[in-house]
Inverse folding.
């Protein structure tokens, strides 16, 4: 389970009887290879050349001429080669000194966080996915990268990462190996950029499997990282992506061959991660449901909810999707949300929204996909009056927990519920909310604890927008590109995917007290036999 549910460990100290050994140093010869393919990869490619197009190597975006799709039989071999190349790079990176890895990650982070680079990546994501606004996506990517780099400065992931002098222990972190990760349309830049940094920091290799609508953007992110790796003398195969075209069987093959899987996004992707047999972080993006007990002014709650509901047009895994408050506060909260730019739907308009959402769920090829689209687009699709065309988000009052509108993740909209009392409001939030994150708006600490106990989310934010659950300067969370709800949603992650989750740790213990009976040895005289 992720450490977000538990308290921090003991303060680092000097472990009695244990010293930090000499580092092994970088494999200088291997690091000098740059972009050259390994002999193993070349041999594999030669063996498969008869039935595989040249575009299968590296990160080529297009299949060979005359091939419009990848055959089912070829997909596992393409994934196999991608993982084999990544594993060679991971083995080389595992020999690097922690200090050299830190320098490498800083260099890659600086390249990704460059203002012009972020702007270019954001435009690519908005144009390719058709979701979100380039300016908002640029802010989203820049904020996530800033938080990730800040987290990496404070969270060692290689070598000695903790010492407990009182207990006489030292914790050493090593790499996991090859991380296979899906890239959803809602996180086309943040996922590959931040996960590349986190994977490299733990001396892993990462192979991305982009969704069909994120192939070009993922390719640009990966190539940006690979150029930085080459400039630093690191193996460029440490970050790669499956060759285009994107296909679910190929993603499945990657998940089966990797050492750790990150499967975030659609239900199909999450299910593939959960059934692949590989240790996995498989989590959906169902938004955040918050509880408001009425003790916080409605205006303050509305401002925070509006921020979460409108961020990147609602296409954020922790965006505010619903708020449940006590009945006397419903009218004030609705009015406050209107003042924040919300448009309250009437009964007929709610019916049209239900129909639109149902169409999106039943038809994968539906042109009217509302996720990540602007409120203006949503208003036009629902044939709302002109006043709604200027709104920042929509507000819906559902009929109950079973209503299709009970929570509205992925779109610039929020559902508002009223219940008679705090306990009833908390119970409804537990019923309609996702276990990966939640929010509570209250001035009473004990009520925040009750929400934590009743909802048991991976992360809970108090008096903040839901998006703060991924990590913000205003709270103590480490930056996380993915949030997991633990066993409640079938994930091996509870909380945020932080750098430490991508490392394997070994705790080494030495005798920290003087042996009081030096004449006794091992298990004791009685067990030694005659």
């Amino acid at each position: 389970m992720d450490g977000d549910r538990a308290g921090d460990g003991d303060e680092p100290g000097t472990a009695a009887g244990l010293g930090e050994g000499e580092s092994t140093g970088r494999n200088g010869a291997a690091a000098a290879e740059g972009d050259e393919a390994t002999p193993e990869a070349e041999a594999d490619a030669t063996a498969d050349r008869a039935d595989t197009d040249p575009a299968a190597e590296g990160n080529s975006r297009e299949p060979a001429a005359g091939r419009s799709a990848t055959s089912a039989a070829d997909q596992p071999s393409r994934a196999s080669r991608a993982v084999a190349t990544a594993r060679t790079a991971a083995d080389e990176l595992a020999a690097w000194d922690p200090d050299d890895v830190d320098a490498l990650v800083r260099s890659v982070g600086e390249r990704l966080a460059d203002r012009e680079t972020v702007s270019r990546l954001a435009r690519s994501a908005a144009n390719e996915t058709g979701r979100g606004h380039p300016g908002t996506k640029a802010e989203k990517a820049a904020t996530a990268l800033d938080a990730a780099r800040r987290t990496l400065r404070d969270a060692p992931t290689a070598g000695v990462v903790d010492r407990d002098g009182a207990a006489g222990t030292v914790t050493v972190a090593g790499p996991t190996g090859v991380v296979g990760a899906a890239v959803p349309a809602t996180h086309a830049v943040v996922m590959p950029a931040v996960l590349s940094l986190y994977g490299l920091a733990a001396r892993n290799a990462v192979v991305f499997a982009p969704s069909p609508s994120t192939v070009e953007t993922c390719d640009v992110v990966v190539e940006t990282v690979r150029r930085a790796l080459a400039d630093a003398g690191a193996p460029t195969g440490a970050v790669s992506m499956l060759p285009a075209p994107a296909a679910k069987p190929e993603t499945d093959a990657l998940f089966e061959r990797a050492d750790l899987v990150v499967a975030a996004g659609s239900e199909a992707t999450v299910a593939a991660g959960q059934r692949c047999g590989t240790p996995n972080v498989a989590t959906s993006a169902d938004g955040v449901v918050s509880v408001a007990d009425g003790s916080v002014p409605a205006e303050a709650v509305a401002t925070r909810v509006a921020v979460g509901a409108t961020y990147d047009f609602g296409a954020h895994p922790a965006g505010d999707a619903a708020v449940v408050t006590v009945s006397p506060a419903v009218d004030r909260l609705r009015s406050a949300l209107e003042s924040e730019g919300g448009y309250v739907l009437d009964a007929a308009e709610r019916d049209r929204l239900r129909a639109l959402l149902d169409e999106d769920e039943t038809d994968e090829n539906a042109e009217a996909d509302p996720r990540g689209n602007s409120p203006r687009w949503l208003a036009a699709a629902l044939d709302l009056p002109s006043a709604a065309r200027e709104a920042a988000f929509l507000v819906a009052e559902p009929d109950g927990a079973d209503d299709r509108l009970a929570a509205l993740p992925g779109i610039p909209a929020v559902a508002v519920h009223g219940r008679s009392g705090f306990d009833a409001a908390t119970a409804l939030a537990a019923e309609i909310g996702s276990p990966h994150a939640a929010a509570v708006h209250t001035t009473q600490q004990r009520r925040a604890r009750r929400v934590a106990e009743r909802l048991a989310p991976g992360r809970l934010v108090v008096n903040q927008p839901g998006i703060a659950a991924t990590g913000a300067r205003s709270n103590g969370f480490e930056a996380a590109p993915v949030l997991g709800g633990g066993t409640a949603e079938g994930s091996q992650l509870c909380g945020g995917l932080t750098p430490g989750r991508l490392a394997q740790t070994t705790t080494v213990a030495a005798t920290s007290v003087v042996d009081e009976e030096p004449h006794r040895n091992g298990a004791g005289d009685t067990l030694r036999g005659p």
Q: What stands out?
A: The chain has 17 helices and 17 strands.
